[in-house]
TrEMBL record:
This is Rhodanese-related sulfurtransferase. One of its GO terms (molecular function) is thiosulfate-cyanide sulfurtransferase activity. It comes from the Bacteria. Residues 28-125 form the Rhodanese domain. It comes from Sulfitobacter noctilucicola. Keywords: Transferase.
Length: 126
Protein backbone atom coordinates (compact mmCIF):
# COMPACT_ATOMS: atom_id res chain seq x y z
CA UNK A 1 0.00 0.00 0.00
CA UNK A 2 1.33 3.44 -0.95
CA UNK A 3 1.24 6.46 1.32
CA UNK A 4 0.97 10.12 0.42
CA UNK A 5 4.70 10.41 1.15
CA UNK A 6 5.42 7.61 -1.35
CA UNK A 7 3.60 9.57 -4.05
CA UNK A 8 5.43 12.78 -3.11
CA UNK A 9 8.80 11.04 -3.12
CA UNK A 10 8.13 9.58 -6.58
CA UNK A 11 7.03 12.97 -7.91
CA UNK A 12 9.98 14.82 -6.38
CA UNK A 13 12.34 12.24 -7.89
CA UNK A 14 11.22 12.97 -11.46
CA UNK A 15 9.76 16.51 -11.56
CA UNK A 16 12.51 19.14 -11.68
CA UNK A 17 12.29 22.08 -9.30
CA UNK A 18 13.23 25.70 -9.75
CA UNK A 19 13.59 28.41 -7.13
CA UNK A 20 11.32 31.42 -7.18
CA UNK A 21 13.95 33.89 -8.38
CA UNK A 22 14.78 31.80 -11.45
CA UNK A 23 11.08 31.24 -12.14
CA UNK A 24 10.45 34.99 -11.88
CA UNK A 25 13.13 35.52 -14.54
CA UNK A 26 11.43 32.99 -16.83
CA UNK A 27 8.11 34.78 -16.26
CA UNK A 28 9.67 38.18 -17.04
CA UNK A 29 11.10 36.76 -20.30
CA UNK A 30 7.65 35.48 -21.27
CA UNK A 31 8.94 31.91 -21.16
CA UNK A 32 6.44 29.12 -20.73
CA UNK A 33 3.02 28.73 -19.21
CA UNK A 34 2.55 29.25 -15.47
CA UNK A 35 -0.18 27.19 -13.82
CA UNK A 36 -1.53 27.55 -10.28
CA UNK A 37 -2.94 24.15 -9.29
CA UNK A 38 -4.57 25.26 -6.03
CA UNK A 39 -8.33 25.33 -5.54
CA UNK A 40 -10.06 28.58 -6.42
CA UNK A 41 -10.78 29.31 -2.74
CA UNK A 42 -7.07 29.33 -1.91
CA UNK A 43 -6.29 31.53 -4.91
CA UNK A 44 -9.09 33.93 -3.92
CA UNK A 45 -7.49 34.38 -0.49
CA UNK A 46 -3.90 34.93 -1.57
CA UNK A 47 -3.88 35.86 -5.25
CA UNK A 48 -1.73 34.10 -7.83
CA UNK A 49 1.02 34.63 -10.37
CA UNK A 50 0.17 37.37 -12.84
CA UNK A 51 -1.27 35.75 -15.95
CA UNK A 52 -1.17 32.21 -14.56
CA UNK A 53 -3.66 29.62 -15.68
CA UNK A 54 -5.82 28.44 -12.82
CA UNK A 55 -6.27 24.70 -13.13
CA UNK A 56 -7.02 22.83 -9.89
CA UNK A 57 -4.97 19.67 -9.46
CA UNK A 58 -8.12 17.55 -9.60
CA UNK A 59 -8.92 18.84 -13.10
CA UNK A 60 -5.46 18.60 -14.65
CA UNK A 61 -5.96 15.23 -16.37
CA UNK A 62 -8.98 16.69 -18.19
CA UNK A 63 -7.39 20.06 -19.01
CA UNK A 64 -4.13 18.44 -20.22
CA UNK A 65 -5.66 15.78 -22.50
CA UNK A 66 -6.39 16.98 -26.06
CA UNK A 67 -8.88 14.12 -26.45
CA UNK A 68 -11.07 15.72 -23.77
CA UNK A 69 -12.36 18.36 -26.17
CA UNK A 70 -14.85 19.86 -23.71
CA UNK A 71 -12.16 20.41 -21.07
CA UNK A 72 -8.76 20.60 -22.79
CA UNK A 73 -6.81 23.84 -22.43
CA UNK A 74 -4.86 24.42 -25.67
CA UNK A 75 -2.29 26.56 -23.83
CA UNK A 76 -0.91 23.27 -22.49
CA UNK A 77 1.48 21.83 -25.07
CA UNK A 78 3.18 18.45 -24.52
CA UNK A 79 6.60 19.91 -25.37
CA UNK A 80 6.00 23.41 -23.99
CA UNK A 81 7.61 24.87 -20.89
CA UNK A 82 5.13 24.50 -18.03
CA UNK A 83 5.76 25.92 -14.55
CA UNK A 84 3.55 24.66 -11.73
CA UNK A 85 2.90 26.37 -8.41
CA UNK A 86 0.70 25.57 -5.42
CA UNK A 87 0.64 26.41 -1.71
CA UNK A 88 3.88 24.75 -0.62
CA UNK A 89 5.14 22.65 -3.56
CA UNK A 90 3.52 19.25 -2.90
CA UNK A 91 0.50 19.62 -5.15
CA UNK A 92 2.70 21.07 -7.90
CA UNK A 93 5.04 18.06 -7.67
CA UNK A 94 2.15 15.58 -7.85
CA UNK A 95 0.60 17.47 -10.78
CA UNK A 96 3.96 17.52 -12.55
CA UNK A 97 4.29 13.75 -12.19
CA UNK A 98 0.79 13.26 -13.58
CA UNK A 99 1.62 15.49 -16.55
CA UNK A 100 4.86 13.59 -17.18
CA UNK A 101 2.87 10.36 -17.16
CA UNK A 102 0.60 11.97 -19.78
CA UNK A 103 3.56 12.73 -22.07
CA UNK A 104 4.47 16.27 -21.04
CA UNK A 105 8.25 16.59 -21.33
CA UNK A 106 9.06 20.00 -19.82
CA UNK A 107 7.20 20.42 -16.52
CA UNK A 108 8.83 22.21 -13.58
CA UNK A 109 7.72 22.61 -9.97
CA UNK A 110 8.37 26.19 -8.84
CA UNK A 111 7.16 25.52 -5.29
CA UNK A 112 4.68 27.48 -3.24
CA UNK A 113 3.02 30.80 -3.95
CA UNK A 114 4.30 32.39 -0.69
CA UNK A 115 7.87 31.90 -1.96
CA UNK A 116 6.97 33.54 -5.29
CA UNK A 117 5.38 36.49 -3.51
CA UNK A 118 8.24 36.87 -1.02
CA UNK A 119 10.76 36.90 -3.90
CA UNK A 120 8.88 39.81 -5.51
CA UNK A 121 7.18 37.90 -8.31
CA UNK A 122 4.33 39.66 -10.14
CA UNK A 123 0.91 38.77 -8.77
CA UNK A 124 -2.75 39.38 -9.43
CA UNK A 125 -5.87 39.15 -7.33
CA UNK A 126 -7.58 35.79 -6.99
Amino acid sequence: MKTAQDYLDAANATVPTMDAKEAISKHAEGKGVFVDVRDSGDIAKSGTIKGALRIPRGMMEFRADPAMTDFYNPALKKDGEIYLICGAGGQAALTGKTMQDMGYSNVTNIGGFPGWKDAGGPTEEG
